[in-house]
Amino acid sequence: MKTLTPGEIAQYCDVHQRTVSRWIACGQLKGFKLPGRGNYRVVLADFIEFLQKQRIPVPPELSEATSVLVVDDEVAYQHAIQRVLKAAGYEVLLAADGFQAGVLLLANKPRLMTLDLQMPGLNGFEILKFIRQHPDLSHTKILVISGLGQAELEQARIAGANATLAKPFDNALLLRSIAHLLD
Q1: What angle do CA 142, 58, 1 make, to 5 degrees?
Q2: Could you check whether the bond before residue 168 is cis, i.e. omega within 30 degrees of 0?
Q3: Would strands 40-43 and 67-71 be described as parallel, antiparallel, or unpaired?
Q4: Rounded Cα gap, residues 15 and 5, in angstroms
Q5: Handedness of CA 73, 76, 81, 86 (dihedral sign)
């Protein structure tokens, strides 16, 4: 978890360090005090959120595109999800089966993945189990997007999915679900 000092934030915003400390003290900017001397620190994601709320451009060196892995064997759904996510500024990786998903997960460690349950080879439930048992991947948020019934979607939640969405889905609902999971 990367943190910034008020001095670093002041340089990015072209303001005085005391101004940043006031933003933190009054709750405009999420921050915390270090034990002992009481110096403030701000988590990078909280600073980026603050900039976005204030409509201040995020410096390129701070903006890390959020990576999303789309796992679906149906090319039409892969491309539909990819199109919506790219338009919203996400970096998108595509996998057509469980094996490709495992390779991309371990190599790229995306923050979130969308996962179809019905696929050849490893199905979505097996991928869920793999991710939740793998220490390096356990932080990955998983949005199951499936055409299966409500019972299977509930099973996916029990197996470790953070949220589910039924196919066909509404693009706005997809974006809201992803934003909620990444918050």
Answers
A1: 50
A2: yes
A3: unpaired
A4: 13
A5: positive
Residue the block writes with tokens 């390129």: 60
Q: What is the pLDDT of residues 132-146, one digit of tens each?
A: 998 888 889 999 999
Residue 104 CA from chain centroid, whole number? 16
**Nearest-CA neighbor of 62 among 7, 2, 22?**
2
User: H/E element holding 63?
Assistant: none
Rounded to two decimals, the pTM is 0.66
Average the pLDDT over 139-158 and give the result: 93
Q: Which CATH superfamily is domain 67-182 in?
A: Response regulator (3.40.50.2300)
Going from N- to C-terminal start, the domains of the chain cover 3-53, 67-182
Cα–Cα distance measured from residue 164 to residue 182, given in angstroms and rounded to the nearest whole number: 14
Reference 145, options 103, 114, 177; nearest CA is 114
Could you give the dihedral angle defined by the CA atoms of residues 123, 125, 131 and 132, in that order, rounded to the nearest 10 degrees? -170
Place of tokens 């949005």: 143
